[in-house]
Amino acid sequence: FFRIKMQPRTKLVVAATICVAIFVLYISFMPSNACPSDLVARLREDLADTQQKLARANSELRKAKDASIAHLTTSAPHALIPSIAQPTSQAPPTTTIEDVDVAACKEKQSSRYRLRWNSTEFYSDVPLEAFWNSFDGKWPHPCGTGKAAIIDIGTHIGDQVEYWGRNFGKAKGCQDTQIFLFEPNPATHQELLVNMKKKYHLGQDTFLPQRMAVSNRSGTAQFFFNRGPRANKAKNQMASLGKVRGEEAAAGGGVDVKVVTLDEFLPQYGIDSIPMLKIDTEGFDATVLFGVERHLPKVQNIVYECHKLWQTGSGDSLGHVVQWLEQRGFKSFKVGHPHFLRLYGPFWDPVYDELLHWQNCVAARPGSEFFNMISKLC
Questions:
Q1: Are 42 and 103 contained in the same domain?
Q2: Distance between CA atoms of 13 and 11, rounded to whole angstroms?
Q3: The domain containing residue 67 runs over which residues?
Q4: pLDDT digit string (tens) for 88-121?
Q5: Which residues form the Methyltransferase FkbM domain (predicted)?
Q6: CB 347 within 8 A of CB 95
């Protein structure tokens, strides 16, 4: 009996019923005086009650079995074939710009920058020198169109002037190009003139040194520079329009210098195009850009210093300048060696302002040869 496949509860009821039935049969065949009649009556009542309970149990069992079969019929295919009942969600479409996965590139760039922002990969003059060297002799359209101008703001003692002549001057075949060299510090400006003549053998027909500062307003302003022991040579002097270049510069005092905006300075020369605008003003690069807004349509490429001194100099943020340039047709990159970091549009990350040090940025026009050269990889 116990080998029969049956619910435990049902087995118990059936076993009790059998036992009661056997006992009743036994009592029935006994002599009448062997068992009181009321006992037999109670046993018969218990048997009837047990039979009713067994019937109800069997009925419940059938209902449960029918419900189980119905559930299996409707849900089993979904459980066995998840791809039908629970289709796997598809990844959202990838957003790409210039054939670059925006989200992946942004994460890759910002993560690398957080780890390397204060190393020679992005910090110091090493990345900038590597940048200039990598494009030496390879600048697209170096002569611009019509009467062209190369503008170097913050020329210092002239370490870059030979490069300008070799890549954008007459040596490159650019016969109608003038190269403007802005250096307001009296000592470094004087050494610039000496270097141009003796070291680089350059005349002043193509190169036009200007002892004046450039900003977003014209007039006269104090120009501060250091006069401490480190400044015994002009090449070691650090200077700017604000007291932002260390204690020596702040304590050194300043001299009055002429200040111009490029928008007011350039019209007298009838400039048609500006293949290169380079800015290095120790914390005031943004104000220089704001002062050349009307001539930006003539500019092809911009190299500017993106420096932590912006926070105490002009008070501008890199994010604001990047957006301002983008609204005027330029997309900015942070110069690294060997990596360039996209800063524009959806590639921007606040970390580039949070961890701003002594670094350099470039801005190019989308679709230009120069832009295509620096935007090949993320």
A1: no
A2: 6
A3: 8-82
A4: 444 445 576 777 899 999 999 999 999 999 888 9
A5: 152-331
A6: no
Contacts 24+ apart (CB under 8 A), 365-372: 365/300, 365/301, 365/329, 365/330, 365/331, 366/329, 366/331, 368/140, 368/300, 368/301, 369/140, 369/141, 370/139, 370/140, 370/300, 370/301, 371/331
In a domain, 1, yes or no: no
pTM: 0.70
Here the tokens at position 234 are 């002009």
Sequence-distant (≥ 6) Cβ neighbours of residue 227 within 8 angstroms: 248, 251, 252, 253
Give the integer Cα–Cα distance in Å for 362 and 176. Answer: 25
Distance CA 175, CA 160 (A): 19
What are the tens digits of pLDDT across the range 339-356?
A: 799 999 999 999 999 998
Has residue 91 been placed in a domain? no
Does 2 reside within a domain?
no
Section 208-224 average pLDDT: 92
Decide if pLDDT at 145 tops 70: yes
Is the pLDDT higher at 78 or at 95? 95
Whether residue 131 sits in one domain with residue 21: no
What is the Cα–Cα distance from 214 to 260, expressed in whole angstroms?
Answer: 5
In this structure, are 64 and 204 located in the same domain? no
- My answer on whether 357 and 292 are in the same domain is yes
Q: Which of 288, 285, 299, 291 is nearest to 356 (CA)?
A: 285
R_g (Cα) of the chain, nearest Å: 44
In contact, 200 and 238? CB cutoff 8 Å = no
Residue among 305, 347, 274 at smallest CA distance from 131: 305
Number of domains present in the structure of the chain: 2
Task: Indicate the residue type of 297.
Answer: P
Cα–Cα distances in angstroms (integers) from residue 232 to residues 73, 214, 229, 238, 311, in the given order? 94, 25, 6, 11, 28
Q: Which of 22, 55, 82 is the last residue of a domain?
A: 82
In the sheet that 273-279 helps form, which strands lie side by side, from edge to edge? 207-210, 177-182, 148-153, 273-279, 301-307, 358-364, 331-335, 340-342
Alpha-carbon span 67 to 65, nearest angstrom: 5
User: For 164-193, how does the pLDDT look when each residue is reduced to its tens digit (9 = 90+)?
Assistant: 999 999 889 999 999 999 999 999 999 999
